[in-house]
Design a protein that fits this description.
The structure holds 2 protein chains of 2 kinds.
Chain A: E1 11-22, E2 25-36, E3 40-44, H1 51-59, E4 66-71, E5 87-89, H2 102-112, H3 118-126, H4 142-154, E6 160-164, H5 172-187, E7 191-195, H6 199-205, E8 208-213, E9 216-221, H7 223-229, E10 234-239, H8 245-250, E11 254-260, E12 263-268, H9 271-281, E13 288-290, H10 294-301
Parallel strand pairs in A: 3-7, 3-8, 5-6, 6-7
Antiparallel strand pairs in A: 1-2, 1-4, 8-9, 10-12, 10-13, 11-12
Helix pairs in contact in A: 2-3
Chain B: H1 3-16, H2 19-39, H3 52-82, H4 85-90, H5 96-123, H6 138-159, H7 163-180, H8 192-198, H9 202-215, H10 220-244
Helix pairs in contact in B: 1-5, 2-3, 2-5, 3-5, 3-6, 3-7, 3-9, 5-6, 6-9, 6-10, 9-10
Chain lengths: ~300, ~250
């Protein structure tokens, strides 16, 4: 689809066979991807898979060697002044004006985007930095710096937001708080493209995820459908004291049985039948079931399982 | 608030909040004034009959101002690129000229304060510098000199990726140039070939023009030659600076 075939502007990002090499390394190796407006899109993949390069191509910071890129109907590499304020980009947690306070930094960023500093206070509130607004950026903790970097992407109220591992340095509470911020942004109709290593988070937040391996997107769907399409295996964890390994291997439906600490781990294709048998021979007390998560699908696809 | 104003304000705050750097920016040329002033106290130059202080003060001043302009922008550019702040700026509609203009304003401000402080101290006993009536002409020369050394600093800040590299490159440029351009020692004391080489260095033109304006060591023609030289170097270094400027350390 070309931008002209999208008169209603329903597409936020459209990539067609995008390629980018560094020497002999194909960082991005033929990616075709469409992100509709209002979608929360997660880009997953191991380090070095090309996620950051791909996002930077969408941001216009890098030019692809081949392929077409359309962001909100524009070519981002042209750095058109009408496009830039509509994009929000989370910076590195080091990209601050030295010796300024969090508020002063954000006011400067707002001015760079040509917007009034009115939004600075509410943006600090959004990312939970109000109490630290007057602290120098150099004195902020790792998590606080990260939240300020996210605030830098939001202060001008962009339509399309790029976040690069936004929850990486956050403690569990701050992470949950940020989830809410991201959900609210999506609720307000913003499009979010983000990279993460937290698969539970991607499963929780994303409308769709793309799993990137060696420069290509190897899976692209909703987390639910990816999980359903993945392995049908369920794992049962039974206290080892009550189920000898030899017995476990003979139970119906069991593919493999291994000992992990004080539990026997059964991988089964037919969890109902296996569970019924386990109930007979060992009882169900302390038995845990592990269904497939996005993490399993991810590990399978990235070849690390 | 415009991007230019915001960036100037951010730069101003960063400067005044770094008290150590601020102090030494202004103290550095004064230290040289004191050292050379004490070594050559009361001595006159053989040929011209000028006091040594009337020779060394303008030279040390132009060197100190050029040094601060080069180091200042060199460090800031290296740091902004290393911290990815340039990437942030690049993602905004703010134009590169606005960014550079804000740094230019700051450099001019620092240079003027340096010069006023320096000349004020040089006029005190025991140095007793006396100003020529044409001293206001030193101001445009000062602005032009700062511009030249700022463009050199942009090149240094684009080449260097660490603070150590900025300091190493800048010192290698500025310290030999100070001696070869006659900032510390009179050109007349130098061998003929060094005097010839000095005309290939921007500091020589800065020294001559500042000296002519401030203490009357030359006439309007000398100031014009100095300004023309600085202008030529600004054009050359500016072109190189545009070529070498990088938004990011990663290609």
């Amino acid at each position: 689809m070309s931008p002209t075939a999208d008169p209603a502007g329903a597409t936020a990002v459209e990539l067609t066979d995008v390629r980018k090499s560094y020497g002999a390394k194909h960082a991005v190796d033929g990616v075709t991807l469409t992100v509709p407006r209002g979608e929360f899109f997660g880009l997953l993949g191991p380090n070095g898979a090309g996620k950051t390069t791909l996002v930077e191509i969408m941001e216009g910071l890098r030019k692809p060697d081949a392929g077409t890129v359309s962001v909100l109907g524009h070519q981002p590499a042209r750095r058109e002044k009408s496009l830039l304020p509509r994009l929000g980009v989370q910076t590195q947690s080091s990209a601050f004006f030295v010796r300024l306070t969090a508020r002063e930094h954000l006011e400067t960023v707002a001015a760079l985007y040509g917007v009034a500093p009115d939004a600075v206070g509410t943006t600090l509130e959004t990312v939970g930095l109000t109490a630290h607004a007057e602290v120098r950026v150099d004195d902020l903790s790792g998590g606080q710096r990260q939240r300020l970097a996210i605030a830098s992407a939001l202060v001008h109220e962009p339509e399309l937001i790029f976040l690069d591992e936004p929850t990486a340095a956050l403690d569990p509470q701050a992470r949950r708080d940020l989830w809410q911020v991201l959900r609210d942004l999506k609720g307000a109709g913003r499009t979010i493209v983000y990279t993460t290593h937290h698969l539970d988070e991607a499963q929780e937040l994303c409308d769709r995820v793309g799993i990137m391996v060696n420069g290509s997107i190897t899976a692209l769907d909703t987390p639910g459908r990816l999980i359903a399409a993945g392995t049908g295996n369920t794992r049962l964890l039974v206290p080892a004291a009550r189920l000898p390994l030899d017995t476990a291997r003979t139970l119906p439906g069991v593919e493999t049985a291994t000992v992990d600490g004080d539990m026997v781990v059964l991988v089964t294709t037919d969890s109902g039948t296996t569970l019924a048998e386990v109930a007979k021979v060992a009882g169900l007390e302390g038995v845990q079931t592990r269904t497939v998560s996005l993490e399993d699908v991810y590990l399978q696809l990235t070849g690390t399982a | 608030m415009s991007a230019y104003t915001a960036l100037s304000q951010a730069g101003y705050r960063a400067s005044v909040r770094d008290k150590t750097t601020l102090f030494f920016t202004f103290a550095f040329p004064l230290i040289f004034l004191v050292v050379f002033g004490l070594i050559f106290a009361g001595q006159a130059l053989e040929d011209s009959g000028r006091t040594y202080i009337s020779y060394t003060a303008p030279g040390v001043l132009s060197w100190g101002v050029g040094n601060a302009a080069l180091f200042g922008i060199g460090f800031v550019l290296m740091q902004w690129r290393r911290d990815d702040l340039l990437r942030l700026i690049r993602m905004t509609p703010t134009s590169l000229p606005s960014v550079l203009a804000s740094r230019y304003t700051l450099a001019l401000g620092i240079g003027v304060v340096q010069a006023v402080l320096f000349v004020a101290v040089a006029m005190l006993p025991p140095f007793r510098l006396t100003l020529d009536s044409g001293w206001p002409l030193a101001l445009p020369v000062l602005f032009l000199g700062i511009t030249t050394f700022l463009t050199m600093g942009v090149i240094v800040g684009s080449i260097a990726t660490t603070p150590e590299a900025v300091a190493a490159i800048a010192n290698c440029v500025m310290v030999p140039m100070a001696f070869l351009s006659g900032s510390f020692l009179p050109m007349d004391m130098m061998p003929g070939w060094i005097q010839a080489v000095s005309w290939a260095l921007p500091l020589r033109y800065f020294n001559d023009a500042i000296s002519a304006a401030l203490v009357g060591s030359g006439d309007m023609g000398d100031i014009a030659v100095g300004c023309a030289g600085l202008l030529a170097f600004t054009v050359v270094f500016g072109a190189i600076a545009l070529k070498t400027f990088r938004w990011s350390n990663h290609s």
